[in-house]
Amino acid sequence: RERKAESVIERERKAESVIDKERKAESVIDKERKAESVIDKERKAESVIDKERKAESVIDKERKAESVIDKERHAESVIEKERKAESVIEKERKAESVVEKERKAESVIDKERKAESVIDKERKAESVIEREKGRECHRERERQRVS
Predict the structure, then answer these.
(1) Helices 2-65 + 71-146 axis angle, to 10
(2) According to the model, what pLDDT value does residue 117 have?
(3) pTM
(4) What residue spans carry the region label Disordered (predicted)?
(5) How far is CA 33 from CA 29, 46, 92, 115, in A?
(6) In whole angstroms, how far apart are CA 10 and each of 13, 17, 66?
(7) In whole angstroms, how far apart are CA 84 and each of 18, 59, 72, 144?
(8) What is residue 69's predicted lDDT score, i.e. its pLDDT?
(9) Which of 3, 24, 50, 92 is deepest in the core (most CB within 10 A)?
């Protein structure tokens, strides 16, 4: 009995060790995801800066190309382009917001899956404990019957 009890305790220790290792692996995965997210945001920021530089370059070239007589038309064109650039920037912001919400939703889904996995493991562990209790009761009844 003691050996069996020690065996059960050892199995429980091993199960706890596996769970600890899974938690550590999940932590590493989370850190990798966060690092990837930071890298993605940096890439997007660089892309926005490049677009701003290109927009500034286009505006400078247009200013140089226009004559003094065209200054009024040029000003209207620049205003229209700024509105369009603001619209593009706003659309980019909305797209980034959607991407971020999707990431958060995926993170929540992952956490729910992990929680379900932990709950399943707990149920299995409880089942093992209940079976062991049943066996111990059966053994005790058998001992009482024999004596």
Answers:
(1) 180
(2) 96
(3) 0.35
(4) 111-147
(5) 6, 20, 22, 19
(6) 5, 10, 84
(7) 56, 13, 19, 89
(8) 60
(9) 92
